[in-house]
Amino acid sequence: MVAAMADSDSGGVSRRGFLIQSGTGSAASLLGAASLPAVRSSAQAAPAPAAAPITEIGPGPVPVQLQVNGKTVAARIEPRDTLAHVLREQLGLSGTKIGCDRGACGACTVWVDGIPTPACMTLALDVAGTAGKGGRAARPVTTIEGLSTAQGTLHPVQDAFVAHDALQCGFCTPGMVMSCAALYERKRSQGQLAALSEGEVREAIAGNLCRCGTYPHVVRAMLSTAKGTGNGKNGGSR
Amino acid sequence: MNAFTWVEVTTAEQAVAQLSAARGGSALLKAGGIDVLDRLKEGLDAPERLIVLRRPTAGSKSTLSEISEIPASRLPDSITRLLPAGNAGDAPQPRDCLRIGALVTLAQIASHPTILRALPALAQAAHAIATPQIRAVATIAGNLLQRPRCWYFRSADFHCRKKGGDECFALDGENEYHAIFDNRTCAAVHPSGAAVALLVLDAIVEIQTASGTRQQRLSAFFVSASQQGGDVKRENRLEPGEVITHLYIPLPSPDERSLYLKSKQKQSFDWPLCEVAISVRRAPSGAGSLLQAARIVVGGVAPIPWRAKAAEAALLRLSKLDIESVRAIAQAASDGARPLAKNGYKVPLCQGVVAQAVMQILSNA
Ligand SMILES: Cc1cc2nc3c(=O)[nH]c(=O)nc-3n(C[C@H](O)[C@H](O)[C@H](O)COP(=O)(O)OP(=O)(O)OC[C@H]3O[C@@H](n4cnc5c(N)ncnc54)[C@H](O)[C@@H]3O)c2cc1C
Ligand code: SF4
Ligand code: FES
Ligand code: FES
Predict the structure, then answer these.
(1) Closest residue (by CA) to atom 41 of ligand 1?
(2) Considering only Cβ atoms within 10 Å of each terminal Cβ, which end of chain B, N or C, has fewer?
(3) Does the CB atom of residue A106 touch ligand 3 within 6 A?
(4) For position B365, what pLDDT does the model report?
(5) Do residues A77 and A88 lie in contact, with contact meaning Cβ atoms separated by under 8 Å?
(6) Residue A69 backbone class (left: φ over 0; alpha: ψ -120 to 50; beta: rest)
(7) Ligand 3 mean position to A207 CA, how many Å?
(8) DSSP codes joined into one string, B78-89
(9) Does A45 reside within a domain?
(10) For residue A9, pLDDT beyond 50
């Protein structure tokens, strides 16, 4: 496999050239972007049959697809771009905040595959779909913008935050809501929403720092929406 | 962050080949990427190639991202020979083991039924690390291999010993979070909470090398600058280009117990000031002492997870649980401590967490 890589690196083997071409071809048809080679692959040599091919990307920008809030969108990213950066700067989804940029505050929390994830410590390529052989599908990302419906109906957790004054300056709020809504959805899918405990809420928001100290209101908002009381219009059934 | 080429691999063999193929050593392996991103953002590492070890996408399976129980009968000899002997002097007995792949996340570990039931110290340690968001991404091997959190080390402005310089800025500087043991060359504490638990559970680490695999006890894996074979620039015996593939943990017998405790400054998530894992094996009744085996490892106090051997010995002598004996064990836990100017509080803290762990485990044992 090392030999295969070295061969293709020296440019002598046409397989790599072929893969680059096919990579660009499919990238172009998918994204309408016919520029840089997207993905270079070299097949894994025997004897490890199960291994996927090695994929090389960058260091310059490459066209990729991201699956954000249910839509597939095209982006051009460098391997070093974080998901938080791409969401905010390229896709205009500035609801996701960057506080510490080191995984320590939770302001950048988004869902990847439905799980709260620090977007500042995730490289966009970790979730991007790449074209070509050795390419892969994008992983679904949900941001605060994707939590409410296109018609503007808020998620029950968002309603409850409003009803219970669970925010002050609002900087931590998108991340806080993403952590809370993930818990809400998990409990709901287990049919356990009404059994939601204070401990579970505190646990879920342990990675979300709030300088304004809204924690007690966040907990109250969550507990009351889970029990279907005291929240806004969509209480508990959405 | 410097620009780099992203090289995506799904097997340890591929990762090793890519790491060794990189000329000039400017390749860095990424698993969950939590520590790697921190280092890239600070400019502490600037690799030309980031070797990204990923779980294969849907369809194909990989033991690298799985937790599985391996019955004694199917355990490879290379692992069996490293298991602890039942009694001193005996040959190691094959035991059922839990195998944890290098890419398994801390969240997976903290919620795995077998780990919760049989290896509580590990479940508790994994659960106490960082935040839910980080645990969803961070891997077990990455946790063991993350670099220290000394603030001088983490700042590109300080070319300290650990980076090949000739000075330790912490020794006469801001050292309130630094080591109280073995701290004269480099006082950075070992950062891994999972390591503390895995050490009292007799874990074995399996490593992919360029020529095959090798196995070693985790107790021989971490090494400080002052120990034989130690190098201040590294924290363990993983050679450049090698990749951890699995951990094997012997499943305890019914008379064994373990637990983990963490003392921290903040109520919600925080790095430990001091953390401890303990495992004990009850003695048969009428044996005179309460326990026939005990292991205590303290974190946050030394450049490696710190085995509190004097406290273990005192614990093994214990014939009944009373406040005097617990105090003696706690005193023994800080044997050899030499605090720096600003971390003297870690001496009583270390004694306190050990005392708490001992009382807690003996009241449930
Ligand atoms: C806010 C915050 C709080 C934290 N609190 C704690 C805490 O309380 N306790 C604690 O223990 N940790 C804590 N951490 C650290 C965190 O747990 C680690 O950074 C994380 O576990 C690293 O795992 P990873 O998979 O992301 O590793 P990566 O960042 O991908 O890798 C870390 C290192 O290991 C190497 N590596 C990874 N996998 C392998 C492998 N299979 N073989 C060989 N080399 C490998 C990489 O090259 C790199 O050098 C905290 C982190 C943050 C951001
Ligand atoms: S404690 Fe270690 S890492 Fe920190 S400044 Fe000293 S030598 Fe560097
Ligand atoms: S900005 Fe990502 S955790 Fe703080
Ligand atoms: S509302 Fe201001 S930081 Fe939380």
Answers:
(1) B244
(2) C
(3) yes
(4) 56
(5) no
(6) left
(7) 9
(8) HHHTTSPPSSTT
(9) no
(10) no
Q: Which ligand is nearest to the CA of A168?
A: 4
| DSSP-assigned states of every residue in B182-216 | S-SS--PPP--HHHHHHHHTT-EEEEE-SSSEEEE
Return residue ranges of chain B for CATH 3.30.390.50.
Answer: 256-364
Whether the CB of B26 is below 8 Å from some CB of chain A: the reply is no
Using the predicted structure, report yes or no on whether residue A110 has a pLDDT greater than 90: yes
pLDDT of residue B87: 65
Question: Could you tell me the fold of the domain covering B67-146+189-250?
Answer: 3.30.465
Instruction: Please give the CATH architecture assigned to the domain spanning B256-364.
Output: 2-Layer Sandwich (3.30)
Q: Which atom of ligand 3 is nearest to the CA of B133?
A: 3
User: Rounded to an integer, what distance in angstroms lies between the CA atom of residue B152 and that of residue B291?
Assistant: 43
- The ipTM (two decimal places) reads 0.94
Distance A143 CA to ligand 3 centre (A): 14
For B283-345, the three-class secondary structure string (H helix, E strand, C coil) is CCCCCCCCEEEEEEEEECCCCCCEECHHHHHHHHCCCCCCHHHHHHHHHHHCCCCCCCCCCCC
B149 lines ligand 1 (CB under 6 A): no
Residue type, B35: D
Task: Measure B144 CA to ligand 2 centroid, in angstroms.
Answer: 19
Q: Is B9 in the A-facing interface, judged by CB distances under 8 Å?
A: yes
Query: Model pTM?
Result: 0.91
- What b-and-e string marks burial along B147-160, b requiring 16 or more CB atoms within 10 Å of the CB? bbebbbbbeeebeb
Residues of chain B with pLDDT under 50: none
Mean pLDDT of chain A: 80
